[in-house]
Design goal:
It is a single chain. The protein has a five-stranded parallel sheet, with helices on both faces. The chain is globular and about 45 Å long. The chain has six helices and five strands. Strand 1 (about 15-20), helix 1 and strand 2 form a beta-alpha-beta unit. Helix 1 packs parallel to helix 3, helix 2 crosses helix 3 and helix 4 packs across helix 6. The protein has helices at about 25-40, 55-65, 65-95, 110-120, 135-140, 145-150, and strands at about 15-20, 45-50, 100-105, 125-130, 155-159. With about 160 residues, it is α/β, with parallel strands linked by helices.
Length: about 160
Protein backbone atom coordinates (compact mmCIF):
# COMPACT_ATOMS: atom_id res chain seq x y z
CA UNK A 1 0.00 0.00 0.00
CA UNK A 2 1.14 3.51 -0.73
CA UNK A 3 2.06 5.77 2.12
CA UNK A 4 -0.20 8.71 2.77
CA UNK A 5 0.72 11.60 0.49
CA UNK A 6 2.67 9.46 -1.99
CA UNK A 7 1.26 9.01 -5.44
CA UNK A 8 1.31 5.68 -7.17
CA UNK A 9 3.26 5.66 -10.40
CA UNK A 10 1.48 4.65 -13.58
CA UNK A 11 2.06 1.16 -14.94
CA UNK A 12 5.31 0.94 -16.90
CA UNK A 13 3.50 -0.42 -19.94
CA UNK A 14 0.03 0.70 -20.97
CA UNK A 15 -0.20 -0.50 -24.59
CA UNK A 16 1.38 -3.79 -25.53
CA UNK A 17 1.75 -4.74 -29.20
CA UNK A 18 1.37 -8.48 -29.74
CA UNK A 19 2.16 -9.45 -33.34
CA UNK A 20 1.16 -12.92 -34.49
CA UNK A 21 1.39 -15.08 -37.57
CA UNK A 22 -0.70 -17.83 -36.02
CA UNK A 23 2.29 -20.10 -35.41
CA UNK A 24 3.04 -22.04 -32.25
CA UNK A 25 5.94 -19.68 -31.54
CA UNK A 26 3.66 -16.64 -31.86
CA UNK A 27 1.17 -18.29 -29.49
CA UNK A 28 3.79 -18.03 -26.72
CA UNK A 29 3.99 -14.30 -27.33
CA UNK A 30 0.20 -14.02 -27.29
CA UNK A 31 -0.08 -15.85 -23.99
CA UNK A 32 2.69 -13.82 -22.34
CA UNK A 33 1.52 -10.51 -23.79
CA UNK A 34 -2.05 -10.96 -22.59
CA UNK A 35 -0.92 -12.16 -19.14
CA UNK A 36 1.39 -9.17 -18.77
CA UNK A 37 -1.36 -6.80 -19.91
CA UNK A 38 -3.69 -8.28 -17.32
CA UNK A 39 -1.14 -7.93 -14.53
CA UNK A 40 -0.40 -4.31 -15.46
CA UNK A 41 -3.89 -3.20 -16.40
CA UNK A 42 -2.62 -2.54 -19.92
CA UNK A 43 -4.27 -2.79 -23.32
CA UNK A 44 -3.29 -5.34 -26.01
CA UNK A 45 -2.87 -4.29 -29.62
CA UNK A 46 -3.02 -7.48 -31.71
CA UNK A 47 -1.38 -7.40 -35.13
CA UNK A 48 -1.23 -9.70 -38.14
CA UNK A 49 1.04 -8.77 -41.05
CA UNK A 50 -0.13 -10.09 -44.42
CA UNK A 51 1.93 -9.99 -47.61
CA UNK A 52 1.12 -7.16 -49.99
CA UNK A 53 -1.02 -7.97 -53.02
CA UNK A 54 2.00 -7.61 -55.30
CA UNK A 55 3.84 -10.32 -53.39
CA UNK A 56 0.84 -12.60 -53.72
CA UNK A 57 0.58 -11.89 -57.45
CA UNK A 58 4.22 -12.52 -58.19
CA UNK A 59 4.38 -15.55 -55.94
CA UNK A 60 1.20 -17.10 -57.28
CA UNK A 61 2.03 -16.22 -60.89
CA UNK A 62 5.50 -17.69 -60.57
CA UNK A 63 4.29 -20.91 -59.00
CA UNK A 64 0.92 -21.45 -60.63
CA UNK A 65 0.79 -19.06 -63.56
CA UNK A 66 -2.98 -18.60 -63.18
CA UNK A 67 -4.88 -15.49 -62.06
CA UNK A 68 -7.68 -17.65 -60.62
CA UNK A 69 -5.33 -18.93 -57.96
CA UNK A 70 -4.70 -15.37 -56.72
CA UNK A 71 -8.19 -14.98 -55.31
CA UNK A 72 -7.79 -18.29 -53.50
CA UNK A 73 -4.40 -17.28 -52.09
CA UNK A 74 -5.80 -13.93 -50.89
CA UNK A 75 -8.77 -15.70 -49.30
CA UNK A 76 -6.39 -18.03 -47.47
CA UNK A 77 -4.36 -15.06 -46.21
CA UNK A 78 -7.49 -13.38 -44.85
CA UNK A 79 -8.60 -16.62 -43.18
CA UNK A 80 -5.17 -17.08 -41.60
CA UNK A 81 -5.27 -13.50 -40.31
CA UNK A 82 -8.74 -13.95 -38.83
CA UNK A 83 -7.74 -17.20 -37.15
CA UNK A 84 -4.50 -15.78 -35.73
CA UNK A 85 -6.14 -12.59 -34.47
CA UNK A 86 -9.07 -14.59 -33.10
CA UNK A 87 -6.64 -16.35 -30.75
CA UNK A 88 -5.53 -12.98 -29.36
CA UNK A 89 -9.13 -11.81 -29.02
CA UNK A 90 -10.20 -14.97 -27.16
CA UNK A 91 -7.20 -14.82 -24.80
CA UNK A 92 -7.82 -11.14 -24.05
CA UNK A 93 -11.54 -11.66 -23.48
CA UNK A 94 -10.85 -14.59 -21.13
CA UNK A 95 -8.30 -12.50 -19.20
CA UNK A 96 -10.52 -9.43 -19.09
CA UNK A 97 -8.02 -7.35 -21.05
CA UNK A 98 -8.98 -4.59 -23.48
CA UNK A 99 -7.89 -5.48 -26.99
CA UNK A 100 -7.77 -4.01 -30.49
CA UNK A 101 -6.92 -6.03 -33.58
CA UNK A 102 -5.51 -5.01 -36.94
CA UNK A 103 -4.10 -6.39 -40.16
CA UNK A 104 -1.33 -4.60 -42.04
CA UNK A 105 -0.07 -5.48 -45.52
CA UNK A 106 3.70 -5.40 -45.88
CA UNK A 107 6.27 -7.69 -47.43
CA UNK A 108 8.60 -6.95 -44.50
CA UNK A 109 6.77 -7.93 -41.31
CA UNK A 110 9.38 -6.36 -39.04
CA UNK A 111 8.75 -2.94 -40.59
CA UNK A 112 4.99 -3.32 -40.21
CA UNK A 113 5.43 -4.34 -36.56
CA UNK A 114 7.52 -1.25 -35.80
CA UNK A 115 5.14 1.01 -37.74
CA UNK A 116 2.15 -0.40 -35.84
CA UNK A 117 3.91 0.09 -32.50
CA UNK A 118 4.61 3.71 -33.36
CA UNK A 119 1.14 4.46 -34.77
CA UNK A 120 -0.66 2.85 -31.83
CA UNK A 121 1.65 4.49 -29.29
CA UNK A 122 2.69 1.14 -27.82
CA UNK A 123 5.35 1.10 -25.15
CA UNK A 124 6.21 -2.61 -25.37
CA UNK A 125 6.26 -5.31 -28.03
CA UNK A 126 5.80 -8.92 -26.92
CA UNK A 127 6.47 -11.60 -29.50
CA UNK A 128 7.42 -15.22 -29.85
CA UNK A 129 10.49 -16.45 -31.65
CA UNK A 130 10.97 -19.64 -33.58
CA UNK A 131 14.30 -20.07 -31.85
CA UNK A 132 16.38 -20.20 -35.03
CA UNK A 133 19.97 -19.28 -34.53
CA UNK A 134 22.74 -17.97 -36.78
CA UNK A 135 22.52 -19.63 -40.22
CA UNK A 136 18.90 -20.66 -39.67
CA UNK A 137 17.93 -17.07 -38.97
CA UNK A 138 19.69 -15.90 -42.12
CA UNK A 139 18.11 -18.57 -44.33
CA UNK A 140 14.59 -18.42 -42.91
CA UNK A 141 14.42 -14.74 -42.07
CA UNK A 142 14.94 -13.14 -38.73
CA UNK A 143 11.87 -10.96 -38.24
CA UNK A 144 12.31 -11.05 -34.47
CA UNK A 145 15.99 -10.13 -34.76
CA UNK A 146 15.13 -7.22 -37.04
CA UNK A 147 12.46 -5.96 -34.64
CA UNK A 148 14.94 -6.23 -31.76
CA UNK A 149 17.67 -4.35 -33.60
CA UNK A 150 15.46 -1.51 -34.88
CA UNK A 151 12.89 -1.01 -32.10
CA UNK A 152 12.95 2.19 -30.08
CA UNK A 153 10.80 0.63 -27.34
CA UNK A 154 11.39 -2.51 -25.25
CA UNK A 155 10.78 -5.89 -26.90
CA UNK A 156 10.04 -9.00 -24.88
CA UNK A 157 10.84 -12.16 -26.85
CA UNK A 158 9.61 -15.59 -25.83
CA UNK A 159 11.75 -18.50 -27.07
Amino acid sequence: AAEKGRRLKRAPYRRILVPTDGSRAAAKGVKAGVALARALGARVEGLYVAPKESALQYGAAAVYGARVVLGHVEDLAVEQAKEALGAIQRAARYAGVRCSLSILADDRPWKAILRAARQRKCDLIVMGSRGRRSLGAVLFGGETARVLSKAKIPVLVLP
